[in-house]
């Protein structure tokens, strides 16, 4: 449930960014060079503040109504060993994306660099911390220190790079491929593809995307948009800590071995293509939370090295 809530909030936040970005494309023509006006642009700033406040308030009201109906005294629990830590990586990736999105909205509004970085990070932590407090009052769940640490790590990854390097040399991204596991526990792992994207940790992949031109001594003709991604996932998981006993359609017991997966894959950072307008570049930088499908090389302790084509097969 927690992964589904986190993803639902993130989708809404990206839609908020899209609304502001599309509006900007209609308001200003695309310049020849991607330069922006200095100083706060009052109309944009008011719109961003109002939109963010409305999104935060509506999200909390909907969550209280749909997922947090029954409150219990505040408590904590330790879920650090669940799902081969896929949930923790997901928390970091979500916090990273929301930090970057908040920053881009502030910069688009004309707020200065340092204030935008701080605001983006604080907004991400506000959203994530609020959800953790809700979990602390939820029956069957609890406040997770591991989740909060992951939230801080994702926010720090964005803020540290933006303060120190003025750019995102390493970004976090999300990918998904269908697996064979949801039919065995559809209520937990999802019945439809949309549900599985939010609930099936076997199908989720999280990537650290490194911009090569920012870390290697390359020449002027090297493509500045080329990235190399390092990915992580898990497989064989039909339960949080361990897999429950399951049977197939013939009544035979089915056992899956749980193991970690590590990937390497090429990628593209489209926000570094400077022919786009500044507003579109800012939106693309955040919307690229979803990794572009590409061939990948996987390593795991069960199958060793495996080369995947463009479309990953079911596990």
Walkthrough of the structure:
This protein is an alpha+beta fold and 315 residues long. It has one domain.
Distance between the termini: 23 Å
Task: Report strand %.
Answer: 15-25%
Mean pLDDT metric = 87
The count of strands amounts to 8
Strand-and-helix sequence, N→C?
Answer: HHHHHEHHEHEEEEHEE
- How many domain units? 1
Within the largest sheet, what's the order of strands?
Answer: 1-2-3-6-7-8
Tally of helical runs: 9
Uncertain parts: 18-35
List keywords for this structure.
315 residues; alpha+beta; six-stranded antiparallel beta sheet; 9 helices; 46% helix; 16% strand; globular
Short structural description:
This protein is an alpha+beta fold. Helix content is about 45%, strand content about 15%.
Question: What's the SSE blueprint?
Answer:
Elements: H1 2-27, H2 42-66, H3 86-108, H4 113-136, H5 145-165, E1 170-176, H6 186-189, H7 193-199, E2 204-211, H8 212-215, E3 226-235, E4 246-247, E5 253-254, E6 259-268, H9 278-287, E7 296-300, E8 304-308
Antiparallel strand pairs: 1-2, 2-3, 3-6, 4-5, 6-7, 7-8
């Amino acid at each position: 449930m927690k992964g589904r809530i986190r993803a639902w909030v993130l989708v809404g936040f990206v839609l908020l960014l899209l609304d502001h970005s599309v509006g900007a494309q209609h308001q200003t023509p695309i310049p020849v060079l991607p330069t922006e006006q200095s100083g706060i642009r009052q109309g944009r700033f008011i719109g961003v503040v109002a939109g963010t406040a409305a999104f935060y308030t509506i999200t909390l009201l909907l969550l209280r109504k749909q997922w947090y109906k029954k409150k219990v005294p505040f408590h904590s629990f330790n879920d650090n060993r669940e799902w081969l830590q896929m949930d923790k990586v997901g928390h970091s990736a979500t916090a990273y994306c929301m930090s970057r999105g908040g920053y881009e909205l502030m910069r688009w509004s004309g707020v200065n660099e340092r204030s935008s970085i701080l605001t983006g990070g604080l907004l991400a932590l506000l959203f994530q911390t609020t959800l953790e407090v809700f979990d602390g009052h939820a029956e069957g769940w609890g406040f997770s220190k591991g989740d909060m640490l992951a939230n801080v790590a994702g926010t720090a990854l964005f803020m540290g790079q933006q303060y120190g390097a003025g750019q995102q040399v390493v970004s976090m991204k999300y990918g998904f491929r269908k697996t064979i596991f949801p039919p065995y526990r559809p209520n937990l792992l999802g019945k439809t593809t949309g549900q599985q994207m939010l609930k099936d940790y076997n199908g989720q992949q999280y990537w650290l995307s490194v911009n090569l031109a920012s870390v290697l001594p390359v020449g002027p003709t090297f493509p500045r948009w080329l990235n190399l991604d390092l990915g992580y996932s898990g497989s064989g998981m039909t339960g949080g800590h361990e897999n429950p006993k399951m049977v197939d359609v013939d009544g035979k017991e089915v056992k899956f071995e749980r193991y970690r997966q590590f990937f390497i894959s090429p990628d593209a950072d489209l926000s570094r293509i400077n022919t786009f307008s500044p507003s579109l570049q800012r939106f693309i930088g955040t919307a690229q939370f979803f990794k572009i499908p590409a061939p990948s090389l996987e390593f795991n302790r069960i199958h060793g090295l495996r080369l995947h084509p463009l479309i990953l097969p079911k596990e």
